[in-house]
Amino acid sequence: MASLAQVLHGHGGNILDADQHTDVGAGQFFQRIRVDLAELTSDRTSFEGAIAEVAERFHMEWHITWPGDKKRVAIFVSRYDHCLWDLLLRHRAGEFDCEIVAVMSNHPDLEPISTQFGVGHHVFPITKDTKSDQERRERELLDGLGVDLIVLARYMQVLSGEFVAAYPNRIINIHHSFLPAFMGGKPYHQAFDRGVKLIGATAHYATTDLDEGPIIEQAVVRTSHRDSVKDLLRKGRDVERMVLAKAVRNHLEDRVIACANKTVVFE
Amino acid sequence: MASLAQVLHGHGGNILDADQHTDVGAGQFFQRIRVDLAELTSDRTSFEGAIAEVAERFHMEWHITWPGDKKRVAIFVSRYDHCLWDLLLRHRAGEFDCEIVAVMSNHPDLEPISTQFGVGHHVFPITKDTKSDQERRERELLDGLGVDLIVLARYMQVLSGEFVAAYPNRIINIHHSFLPAFMGGKPYHQAFDRGVKLIGATAHYATTDLDEGPIIEQAVVRTSHRDSVKDLLRKGRDVERMVLAKAVRNHLEDRVIACANKTVVFE
Amino acid sequence: MASLAQVLHGHGGNILDADQHTDVGAGQFFQRIRVDLAELTSDRTSFEGAIAEVAERFHMEWHITWPGDKKRVAIFVSRYDHCLWDLLLRHRAGEFDCEIVAVMSNHPDLEPISTQFGVGHHVFPITKDTKSDQERRERELLDGLGVDLIVLARYMQVLSGEFVAAYPNRIINIHHSFLPAFMGGKPYHQAFDRGVKLIGATAHYATTDLDEGPIIEQAVVRTSHRDSVKDLLRKGRDVERMVLAKAVRNHLEDRVIACANKTVVFE
Amino acid sequence: MASLAQVLHGHGGNILDADQHTDVGAGQFFQRIRVDLAELTSDRTSFEGAIAEVAERFHMEWHITWPGDKKRVAIFVSRYDHCLWDLLLRHRAGEFDCEIVAVMSNHPDLEPISTQFGVGHHVFPITKDTKSDQERRERELLDGLGVDLIVLARYMQVLSGEFVAAYPNRIINIHHSFLPAFMGGKPYHQAFDRGVKLIGATAHYATTDLDEGPIIEQAVVRTSHRDSVKDLLRKGRDVERMVLAKAVRNHLEDRVIACANKTVVFE
């Protein structure tokens, strides 16, 4: 921490906010630093070189986002539109510092929404037989677009292990339950049948183990005996939206560090 | 509803609050009525008789609590004291309209607390061999004391199916997780290992299926990567206390109706 | 309650949910009943007549909404669009059982949004000199459209006392603070200056006393020293949306009864 | 930050957690560092000397708490006992790393509680005429006991400006409302009369302006039309307890920095 702060200072960087955490059990140290570069005295190359030198010395993994480096985001959807609307409207309102470069779907239904926001809507219908081919084509498109983050905004297809493995900690999924409760399909129906008094949503990085990836954000909302499954679906839409948006924003601001099966979230 | 309201009115009862619910799926109608009896024109026997007549006509189960009818409560504990303190202090503060007639435990540790509040502390050490005998003795004591409600305030023994079946919807347990997540033992350790961003507690009626009984109340509290298991335990104590106290109060005020594996809670 | 339930039953109405409340201090009794009319044995006129007869006998005010009676809603906006989007999208998603018949604004900016949802966007620029005339024209339009409910979705003009008085308990305003904290303008700036750890929003019926009308719904969200005014504005948009939507839905479902300066909300 | 980290490192201190914040508006930089001293290579004097040297160079105010440095706490109470019980039980449960050296009160009522926990209960009856003298005697006792923190746990007397000024940012008060709503007396009655849908509590440092000090922590709880003033008092006790305990714990762990009329809370 001292050496890195010294480097930042030495190059004219002014630390605005910083956050550190030691995971004693894992023997890991995490750090996020936000630097004011107005008085930077060196260029990017030498600045990054100096950081790299410190990082190598202390065996640190590191990543830097420069002011103009907007992450490039693709949103995967199926037929539910509430998360897509929410993400696109928040982006337009300036809540997400990114470029949304594609909406991808196994259905054409939501194309008018994407179009309205000037985002290409790419349809890849998936069947058991075509899945492998279609995923290959999807990856070509994603890589061609230089996508940094994939957001599964209620995408109702299970991605293959191969696909998921290609984007480690770069796919955020919203699961419509308070994981690990109600894994798998139809969690609101499961919640209704169990008679829980709260329902929730979970945003997590997708891993090859479905619903088991590192959790980024969770929230819940109260329910009661008066709530039908339809009411749970309605309440759930709100909490899904909020949880997904918060996870995406934190990821975009480099506040989330995944390590093993957990996340550090520097809020 | 009309007939019952008519009977209450006809005997001089003045309805203060009422709440009704129809569970369309189960084909069940639920109702809770709070009546001002200041101008009751008949005696208890004829009042109850009239209600019973209506209830029989419409195949309703019913229950009445008269103003002086304080429920008699036994609290089961082991070594954790936070829920016991909380229940006894709330009782003294007038939050629970009941009599606490016994604390029962498999350990003597918390006796000074019970004694301080003037409640007998009965110790029944449990081993695999003695469990059956001890439960029989516990039931004798409970029945001798006329206990209406058993509160498992972090009681660390599993009650036998026979014991539980003897007090249907009259045993409230606090489970230290947001069920159905993290069933079984050491839920805070499970939560820590899974890296969840919220932990919770669940108050439910005990049934022969452990952790599967009708849920009365749940709540959660935020956690972060900074929280150790010890922090989760501390945060958990607060939410356990709050959830258990709310479930107990609602039960004592006849606000909870269990039906199949769910509850209607008229708050 | 008995007489009314008797009347409903006598005409073949099947009570699905009901909720009653006595405000002892005010000496008022409130009741909401939801009735299944599938087996109604009489026509509307005689059904309403029978209710009216009971109501008169017990000096009750009453209101009935028949299944097809969709309330007609006008939304007032200025330049902030988040509440408008939210209301229109929820309406399209089937969350509001109403017809949105007009968007009215002192600015043309949000017209594309209204148009997209097929709702007329009526612009009434307001200056100190024209306010009285413009409000008269607005009222003509509202009354011509048969508007039942006016939603002030971050409408930045103060309505005159005369206007407000014309729609008693039929104008819902969203105030961007947890009232009565931070009344008046720029509440997020006030909150920032005061250093509060939570910010909130309040939906209330508009009355001639600004920010003093009966409160329908409130919620809060956590803030910290890291939040700038801009962050508060962003967090505030979410809580404003949620609070306004919940108040509107409860009003549309006839769950809200205003009495003096308070509301009964039968959820 | 670099220089300080260098000093800590140079003396063998291992940074476990750190948190920094820049208040751009105020032009202030705040930092909290938790250091593992297991491998400290120098003694306290030289370690502190080195920190002092850096601090002076950068015009920083600083404070260090060594592992054994338990803060000494006095709790002020009147007749409400819920916060006192809560603080003493949490202390016994190991939630507060401090010594509670005195309970001080204008009434003898709660003496049995203090005594039970082995804490001296000092009674200073206050009248308008004796206030000045009694506060002087209280301050003598506090200073004699070496008190670091005064907790006003529902202490119903207003401390004089002179008294408050003697312990800057060392007196934590719990106000039973969500400030700045409902300042002054009887906030639950005010909340009831206004018909709010949430009530709250606020822990803040006491300043000479009553209810205007820097806010440390706030929380709220939902209420409804069914809640009487008595219900609000009951719900309020829970939220008061939770908010006060969290503020006290954060203060004891040196997580709170007051600056002007706000706090930075490094959680």
Structural account:
- Four copies of one chain form a homotetramer.
- The first copy, chain A, has about 270 residues and is an alpha/beta fold.
- Helix content of chain A is about 35%, strand content about 25%.
- Chain A has a seven-stranded mixed beta sheet, with helices on both faces. In chain A, strands 1-2 form a two-stranded antiparallel sheet.
- Chain A folds into two domains: about 1-55, ACT domain (Alpha-Beta Plaits); about 70-265, Rossmann fold (3-Layer(aba) Sandwich), CATH 3.40.50.170.
- The interface of A and B includes residues 194, 197 and 220 of A.
Question: What's the structural blueprint in terms of helices and strands?
Answer:
The structure is a homotetramer of 267-residue chains.
Chain A: H1 2-10, E1 14-23, E2 28-36, H2 44-57, E3 71-77, H3 82-92, E4 98-105, H4 111-116, E5 121-123, H5 131-145, E6 149-152, H6 161-165, E7 171-175, H7 187-194, E8 198-205, E9 215-222, H8 229-252, E10 256-259, E11 262-265
Parallel strand pairs in A: 3-4, 3-6, 4-5, 6-7
Antiparallel strand pairs in A: 1-2, 7-8, 8-9, 10-11
Q: What's the quick description here?
A:
The structure is a homotetramer of 267-residue chains. Chain A is an alpha/beta fold and 267 residues long.
What's the rounded overall pLDDT mean of chain A? 95
Please name the CATH architecture of the largest domain in chain A.
Answer: 3-Layer(aba) Sandwich
**Most extensive interface: pair and counts?**
A-B, 29 and 29 residues
Number of helices of chain A: 8
Can you identify the CATH superfamily of the largest domain in chain A?
Formyl transferase, N-terminal domain
Largest sheet of chain A: 7 strands, mixed
The CATH top-level class label of the largest domain in chain A: Alpha Beta
Shape of chain A: globular
Unreliable runs of chain A: none
Strands side by side in the biggest sheet of chain A: 5-4-3-6-7-8-9
Distance between the termini of chain A: 19 Å
How many structural domains of chain A?
2
What oligomeric assembly is this protein in?
homotetramer
- Strand tally of chain A, please? 11
Q: Taking Cα atoms only, what radius of gyration of chain A do you get, to the nearest Å? A: 20 Å
Q: Structural class of the helix and strand makeup of chain A?
A: alpha/beta
The CATH topology name of the largest domain in chain A reads Rossmann fold
Query: Hey, roughly how much beta strand do the residues of chain A contain?
Result: 25-35%
Q: What order do the SSEs of chain A take from the amino end to the carboxyl end, as H and E?
A: HEEHEHEHEHEHEHEEHEE
**Fraction of residues in helix of chain A:** 25-40%
